Amino acid sequence: MDKLHITQDDYEYWMLSLEKEDGTMGVLAHQFSSPDKLIEIANELIREGKVNASIVIDPPRSGRRAIAVASPDEYTKPQPRKAGA
């Protein structure tokens, strides 16, 4: 079964990654200030039959400092990340 991972990137934005059964991963959505909308998106993908997956959610990163971004133009799409890793 595939997995939908909801995690924070190095800038402390939330993202949604899809891990396929073969281990390949891709980012589906990123740069969210909270996980709420991503949880909604993940549930919708499953409900509509677009993916057959379980949802894995990392807790918020506490005590970590985000990488400073001088401007929104400097933010780049993050690499996919597994929850719990």
Task: Briefly characterize the structure.
It is built from one helix and four strands; from the N terminus they run E-E-E-H-E.
Layout of helices and strands:
Elements: E1 2-8, E2 14-19, E3 25-32, H1 36-47, E4 53-57
Parallel strand pairs: 1-4
Antiparallel strand pairs: 1-2, 2-3
Describe this entry's structure for a reader.
The chain has 85 residues and is an alpha+beta fold. The protein has a domain at 2-60: Nucleotidyltransferase, domain 5, CATH 3.30.420. Helix content is 14%, strand content 31%. It has one helix and four strands, in the order E-E-E-H-E. The chain has one helix at residues 36-47, and strands at residues 2-8, 14-19, 25-32, 53-57. A four-stranded mixed beta sheet has the order 3-2-1-4, with helices on one face. A hairpin with a 5-residue loop joins strand 1 and strand 2. The longest helix is centred in the middle third of the chain and has 12 residues, at 36-47.
